[in-house]
């Protein structure tokens, strides 16, 4: 594996609990009724182009992008549009969505459903980006930023490196791991397509060394793929963060307030690379993804290929049901995920896992006074002072929060994980970021 690299500042080592790492990807049946939110990307929600009562096919356009930072949404099922109405999302809020009563599974004719792996990448950069844009691709690691936008560096910047994120440092989650093992060839072709779109000649696939099978498998696959290398990384959370991964792989630091492209890097998740392969080579829009369902008391920790719009309950049923010990259900992993209030919320493009926690894990310990131990500052990968930021956010001093660079927080939860006083630091940081961000945006509108 060579030298194990990592980022330099902060980080923690939570127990990995990769209970589903050996569970091969299973294809889940389409739901009987699909609930498809129209806000599935970072940016503006999509605009419906179908109406109630309309018959749709799997892969058909349901909603078009409503702005530059927006993506189209395609039907994950075939059937009839039941209604366009508010539906509950994973955050517990209602948002506009399309509900489809499922009838059979008839796909759009132009989607290549064969198992043949297409390696020819004789496309121009513009053609690749256009296909990705039309397919509705977003960052599959959870950020859901429109993929095509990342492939169009702003004037004055130039991409030098494409970094493929195969870290999956969040405890419990294994969907990316299984993708690398089972869809490695497609991921490599997707990486080549992304390189061509960005016009770069160097790509690095970063994988933590707790996945030696994925490292060896992809290392073998890239032997004849010019410009692509696999970099084994030391296990350290949150290495999957863009800035941390860039530091670990190419030793460049993204300045405060800047994007990775400012240091010549573009980061894409391995799931996104696979989706790029399917969009460009198979003409398949993004309407399904791999989701981990796991937990210490879950009878069958699993990785499922799931249609977007499938209720979480269907995944839980496929994992042999909700354990009696269940105290909390998390959308995502234990460090950055958020609790859901209902198992009827749907899987969306950014869903990576469903974690079912028992009482001993889910119960929050009693908060006590901060003892100024500085552990939260020591583990912060962004070099911030979480104790200060949480305190000023708690009392509404958002001018101080902005000055102390709260917008640089990546919400990794390392501070809260290590706090001996059990202070919900991440909760206050999220509150502070939300309020401070709104203030900054309002200044821009009135300037």
Write out key terms for the chains shown.
four-stranded antiparallel beta sheet; 17 strands; 28% helix; Rossmann fold; six-stranded mixed beta sheet; alpha/beta
Name the poorly predicted regions. Answer: none
Structural shape: globular
Biggest sheet layout: 6 strands, mixed
Q: Which strand-content bin applies to the residues?
A: 15-25%
- How are strands sequenced across the largest beta sheet? 1-14-13-17-15-16
Q: How is the CATH topology of the largest domain named? A: Rossmann fold
Q: How many domains make up the 3D coordinates? A: 2
Fraction of residues in helix: 25-40%
Within CATH, the superfamily of the largest domain carries the name NADH-ubiquinone oxidoreductase 51kDa subunit
Assembly type of the shown chains? single chain
Structural class, from secondary structure content? alpha/beta
CATH top level label of the largest domain: Alpha Beta
Spatial separation of the terminal alpha carbons: 52 Å
User: Counting H and I runs of at least 4 residues, what is the number of helices?
Assistant: 14
Query: What would you report as the Rg, rounded to the nearest angstrom?
Result: 21 Å
Mean pLDDT: 96
Give a count of the beta strands, DSSP E runs of length 2 or more. 17
Architecture per CATH nomenclature, i.e. the level-2 architecture of the largest domain: 3-Layer(aba) Sandwich
């Amino acid at each position: 594996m060579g030298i194990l690299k990592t980022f330099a500042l902060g980080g923690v080592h939570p127990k990995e609990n990769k209970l589903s790492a050996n569970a091969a990807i299973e294809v889940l049946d389409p739901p009987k009724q699909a609930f498809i939110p129209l806000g599935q990307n970072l940016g503006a929600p999509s605009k419906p182009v179908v109406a109630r009562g309309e018959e749709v096919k799997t892969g058909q356009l349901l909603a078009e992008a409503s702005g530059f930072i927006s993506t189209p949404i395609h039907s994950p099922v075939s059937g009839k549009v039941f209604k366009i109405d508010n539906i509950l999302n994973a955050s517990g809020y209602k948002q506009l969505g399309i509900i489809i009563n499922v009838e059979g599974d008839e796909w759009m004719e132009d989607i290549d459903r064969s198992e043949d792996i297409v390696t020819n990448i004789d496309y121009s950069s513009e053609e690749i980006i256009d296909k990705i844009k039309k397919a509705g691709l977003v960052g599959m690691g959870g950020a859901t930023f429109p993929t095509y936008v990342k492939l169009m560096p702003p004037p004055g910047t130039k991409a030098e490196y494409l970094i493929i994120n195969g870290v999956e440092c969040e405890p419990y989650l294994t969907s990316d791991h299984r993708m690398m093992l089972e869809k490695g060839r497609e991921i490599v072709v997707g990486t080549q397509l992304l390189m061509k779109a960005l016009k770069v000649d160097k790509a690095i696939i970063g994988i933590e060394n707790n996945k030696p099978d994925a490292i060896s498998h992809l290392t073998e696959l890239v032997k004849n793929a010019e410009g692509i290398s696999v970099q084994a990384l030391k296990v350290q959370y949150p290495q999957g963060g863009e800035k941390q991964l860039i530091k670990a792989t190419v030793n460049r630091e993204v300045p405060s307030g800047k994007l990775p492209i400012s240091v010549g890097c573009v980061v894409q998740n391995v799931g996104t690379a696979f989706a790029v392969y399917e969009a460009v080579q198979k003409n398949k829009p993004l309407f399904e993804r791999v989701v981990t369902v796991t937990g210490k008391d879950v009878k069958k920790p699993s990785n499922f290929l799931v249609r977007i719009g499938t209720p979480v309950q269907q995944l839980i049923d496929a994992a042999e049901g909700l354990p009696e010990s269940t105290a909390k259900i998390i959308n995502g992993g234990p460090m950055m995920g958020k609790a859901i209030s209902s198992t009827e919320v749907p899987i969306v493009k950014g869903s990576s896992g469903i974690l079912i926690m028992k009482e001993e894990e889910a119960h929050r310990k009693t908060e006590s006074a901060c003892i100024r131990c500085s552990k939260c500052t020591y583990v912060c990968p962004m070099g911030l002072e979480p104790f200060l930021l949480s305190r000023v956010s708690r009392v509404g001093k958002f001018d101080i929060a902005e000055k102390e660079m709260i917008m640089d927080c990546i919400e990794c939860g390392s501070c809260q994980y290590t706090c001996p006083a059990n202070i919900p630091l991440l909760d206050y940081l999220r509150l502070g970021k939300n309020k401070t961000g709104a203030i900054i945006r309002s200044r821009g509108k009135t300037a």
